[in-house]
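dumping this here so i dont lose it
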């Protein structure tokens, strides 16, 4: 495969589609063992679908059998494969998104808009001063939307660097006026300008963003059954 690309694979965890694939046979022996450890069937289904999709999709890039791909886990929990491909997965409710790229480390986060209690408390904890100031200037409805838009950006960043939220979401500052850019990130992860935020359009009610280094790549979104 040549050229820089970002491919977004998206779909439903429980698919009603008549042609929907049985993903169980893409899992390796250890994962099949794990499937039987889930007590709740919906968690079992979620694991089979997300792991199975990951293996099936990666197999297309790596030219390996899905069940033979070596998926490793980095220090803070981020799954990865050795070599030139980067990926990251997010799931919420019945939906998942998987980003695959050869550009750089990548992070993706998917949420669904919903009213939350004590949004202000969460904002004070996870947003920086400049983000809080902007948030406070908005109407209540706009505040909810802005909260999620920033939240998925911050999460996508902490997932791109593989650290997770322990790194401090308030340290990953999105420019409220230009939401494709970071104003600041923790210094050990380089310069904020190097990282690029991309909105991923999904269905109404979903909010999704991806974070990657660089801006030049071919982009496509693919629905997977
Ligand atoms: C990683 C994290 C940001 C995920 O956020 P979330 O909104 O709950 O979940 P998402 O659906 O968006 O993402 C989950 C997927 O991200 C990936 N993931 C897991 N850990 C990750 C990490 N550190 N960085 C990037 N991606 C990670 C996995 O593919 C995971 O899928 P799985 O649950 O099917 O294995 C969050 O759980 C977190 O911060 N965890 C703490 C990590 C940490 O500090 N671990 C220390 C112990 S070593």
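and the seq i came up w/
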């Amino acid at each position: 495969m040549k050229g820089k690309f970002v491919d977004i694979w998206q779909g439903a965890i429980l698919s009603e589609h008549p042609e929907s694939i049985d993903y169980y046979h893409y899992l390796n022996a250890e994962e099949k063992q794990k499937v039987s450890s889930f007590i709740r069937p919906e968690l079992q289904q979620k694991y089979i679908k997300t792991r199975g999709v990951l293996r099936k999709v990666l197999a297309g890039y790596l030219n390996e059998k899905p069940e033979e791909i070596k998926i490793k886990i980095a220090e803070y929990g981020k799954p990865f494969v050795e070599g030139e491909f980067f990926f990251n997965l997010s799931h919420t409710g019945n939906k998942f998104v998987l980003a695959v790229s050869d550009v750089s480390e990548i992070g993706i986060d998917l949420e669904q808009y919903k009213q939350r209690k004590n949004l202000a408390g969460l904002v004070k904890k996870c947003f920086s001063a400049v983000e809080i100031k902007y948030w406070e200037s908005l109407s209540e409805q706009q505040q909810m939307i802005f909260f999620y838009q920033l939240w998925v950006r911050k999460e996508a960043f902490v997932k791109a660097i593989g650290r997770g939220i322990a790194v401090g979401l308030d340290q990953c500052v999105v420019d409220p006026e230009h939401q494709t850019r970071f104003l600041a990130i923790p210094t050990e992860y380089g310069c904020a300008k190097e990282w690029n935020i991309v909105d991923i359009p999904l269905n109404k009610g979903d909010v999704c963003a991806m974070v990657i280094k660089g801006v030049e790549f071919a982009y496509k979104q693919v629905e997977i059954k």
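The chain has one domain: 5-223.
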